[in-house]
Amino acid sequence: MVKFILNNQTIQTDLPAGTTVLDFVRYDKNLKGTKIGCREGDCGACTVLVGELNKDSVKYRSMTSCLMPIANAHCKHIVTIEGINKPNNELTKVQQAIVDAGGTQCGFCTVGFVMSLTGFCIDETEKSGAMAISSIDGNICRCTGYKSIERAAERVSCQLSVAGSQRNQLEVAIEKDFVPAYFSHIKEMLVEIKGIDRQPITDHRQLFVGGGTDLYVQRYDEMVYAPAENLFDNSDLRGIKKNGEFIEIGASATVTDLLVSPVIQSIFPNLYKHLKLVSSTPIRNMATLAGNFVNASPIGDMTIWFLALDALVIFNNEREIRLSELYLGYKTLAKTDDEFIKTIRFRKEVQHFNFEKVSKRTCLDISSVNSAISLKTENNKILEAHVSAGGVAPIPLYLKKTSAFLRGKEINDATISQANDILQTEISPISDVRGSESYKRLLLRQLFTAHFVELFQNKLCVFSVPQR
Ligand SMILES: Cc1cc2nc3c(=O)[nH]c(=O)nc-3n(C[C@H](O)[C@H](O)[C@H](O)COP(=O)(O)OP(=O)(O)OC[C@H]3O[C@@H](n4cnc5c(N)ncnc54)[C@H](O)[C@@H]3O)c2cc1C
Ligand code: FES
Ligand code: FES
What we know:
It is globular, with a radius of gyration of 23 Å. It has helices spanning 21-28, 93-100, 110-122, 129-134, 146-163, 169-175, 186-193, 215-218, 220-223, 255-260, 262-267, 271-275, 281-284, 289-295, 301-307, 400-406, 413-426, 437-456, and strands spanning 2-6, 9-13, 47-54, 57-64, 77-79, 207-209, 228-230, 240-243, 246-250, 312-315, 320-322, 327-329, 332-333, 341-347, 352-358, 369-378, 381-390, 397-398. It is of the alpha+beta class and 468 residues long. It folds into 3 domains: 2-84 and 181-230, Ubiquitin-like (UB roll); 87-175, [2Fe-2S]-binding domain (DNA polymerase, domain 1); 235-464, 2-Layer Sandwich (Enolase-like, domain 1). Helix content is 32%, strand content 20%. The longest helix is centred in the C-terminal third of the chain and has 20 residues, at 437-456. The strands form 5 sheets. The chain has a 5-stranded mixed beta sheet with strand order 2-1-5-3-4. Strands 8-9-14-10-11 form a 5-stranded antiparallel beta sheet, with no helix packed on it. The structure holds flavin-adenine dinucleotide (FAD) and FE2/S2 (inorganic) cluster (2 copies).
């Protein structure tokens, strides 16, 4: 049994916990405002808002309902377009802004844009035009073009920043009529259903599900009835904390959890610049770190990120291994079927870190090649180095020889050039739709150089690095 608040009503269902929220709202509840486009998390037509109790408030995130199992809705507030529509065909402020800016034609994508922008109105992000536009990075429109939709987003952000800044954003949004008044009772309604156990559908669980953003794309048909254990809301697998010289992250932390974490922000000054290259806002709101690691894609962005931090993964049975030791071969992992990742741990002292990604589109695209580096230096000398690269082998790579070579070297053009030569011996890219073998080799060479340009620009004369 799954119990949650759908718009303004508490409901429960005995449907299989793997049913998607999209299918539930459209076919079980006949709420047809939420659209089906790609069913792969790409188009944003199915976007809903998901509210969750967070200390003494409700935290809202946009999510793609096509990839979200109803198990992950348990004890939460799910908001569809019907839950923010006003009576008597009046428009909400977000809808009005889209109309005023000429941001809709056929209207198929519009619901998704309205939901994402409404999510922006009630989440904790800065209420700037740039952040409003960024909140719709997971929505695709085939016919209007984006400039008018961006103008609508800017209008919404202007209205909000006038509306007030220091107060609880949800209260401001309710008061200024961006969301209906019933939102103010949701916290009490969530408290009432908090802690109700969801009955598992089977005792023979064989599959772990995080945010579902890989599993529901790859195996949608079997996921509804799959005997799965949903780890997304497992409280032992959430949270980011300092523990002595380490940072410990619950395996079900999402990419957004990293983005908004003061602990992580204090370690990675370019966090937003780097993580906005990973998927889109609604996918980042669902995508867990463990899901990224265990999916074992050779180009998993978070995997590459944590490989360069020389992170450890800790399983439910307390077994601990380096992340780099998890990958034995293409999608073959050093873990048993009943082991799941509980915690990710890395040293909190990160002196120089950089992440680079090249993809066909800047936003909402997977990498052709990606790379990360973490360095500890003193007086222009490298004391410690960890380099990783994706898209250049059957597994996400920790570049062992390159990292070892860098230790003890001066930071200069010659070091970078020699390290680049070693790096080329560690990779084995293949030609595919994302580029030829030689292109990927060149890309990694450039990304590796880019790390040093980003981190030590004033010490280098990189244009003299020989190109191949
Ligand atoms: C539109 C779209 C864009 C995307 N863009 C990117 C991108 O730019 N970069 C990128 O790297 N990825 C991208 N992805 C892929 C995906 O979002 C990530 O890999 C994500 O981190 C997967 O996490 P999840 O929690 O959703 O995984 P799930 O789908 O829930 O699970 C994936 C795998 O991990 C296993 N698993 C989950 N949690 C655990 C655990 N705690 N212990 C053990 N096993 C576990 C599952 O059994 C499954 O095998 C994109 C996906 C979509 C749909
Ligand atoms: S239907 Fe396209 S993102 Fe869900
Ligand atoms: S208005 Fe037609 S797809 Fe966006």
